[in-house]
Amino acid sequence: MIKNIKSNVEYLTFNNLSGISGVRHAFSTRLGGVSSGIYSSMNLGYTRGDDKACVDENFSRMAAVLGCDMNDFVTGVQTHTTNIRLVTEEDKGKGVVRPVDYSDTDGLITNIPGIVLVTFYADCVPLFFADPVHKAIGLSHSGWRGTVNRMGAATIRAMHDNFDTDPSDLICGIGPCICMDCYEISEDVADVFMKEFPGCLLSAGDTRSDHTFMMPKNDDKYLLDLRAANRLIMIEAGVPAANIELPGICTCCNPSYLFSHRATNGKRGNMAAFLGL
Ligand SMILES: [Zn+2]
Q1: Neighbours of 49 (CB within 10 A)
Q2: Ligand 1 centroid to 255 CA: how many Å?
Q3: pLDDT of residue 204
Q4: For 1-14, what is each residue's pLDDT tens digit?
Q5: Which string of b and e fits 205-232 if b means at least 16 CB within 10 Å?
Q6: How far is the CA of 89 from the centre of ligand 1 (A)?
Q7: For residue 196, how far is its CA from the centre of ligand 1 (angstroms)?
Q8: Residue 56 above 90 pLDDT?
Q9: Pick from 102, 243, 270, 246: nearest CA to 180
Q10: Ligand 1: distance of its center to the CA of 100 in Å?
Q11: Domains, the chain
């Protein structure tokens, strides 16, 4: 990903998505907003306890960066499901300038120009999808539950069903999330992954492949590489590996630059992923 600064707002973009005409996107950092304290400064979460006026101003700054209007934003309502909403013209503004009238929505897809999809993060994995052939996009939130339930594949299926998307045409980005070294999980979570992805566990001395993304730590703890798992899910769903860009930056390793749930014990704001046509 590339670091960008516009009007003091620092945000990240993907090389591959930047190359598609008619697609705009960004991933926010903590820098360039007006929120203070644990929300300092670019908090985009209305549900974290921050002042609404500050979050409004932060969204307004991101709209300026993206070259869109606050009314173009449509947000998810994230509850670690694999539910995906087909976003239409009448959803414009929901979650930012108007209340949402849907729930349990971790993925958003659309083919309507002008709409900018928005999902929220602080360690979980942002998944960006662009279909340049059918001029359609998808944006999904994938924590460990979303990952084990193959949120990426669910999003691709929804784009196929609604826009006739061929997975081999997709250009994908995996945004900033928690890295493997920082992401310790308990044995019960590891068991769920081993059941869904046989062969995902890396043993001592093994070299990593596309299929191994978890390793034992100690005391019945494991380390999980959510990026590699989500990349594998995209590849298994038909996306060419060369079309998937990875973040190269960890939220938990960089808690003053990015919001991290783990690094702050939950005392934090939200970053947002933005993807529009
Ligand atoms: Zn890390």
Answers
A1: 12
A2: 9
A3: 79
A4: 999 999 999 999 99
A5: eeeeeebbbbbeeeeeebbbbbbbbbbb
A6: 38
A7: 24
A8: yes
A9: 246
A10: 33
A11: 2-178+226-276 (3.60.140.10), 184-224 (no CATH)
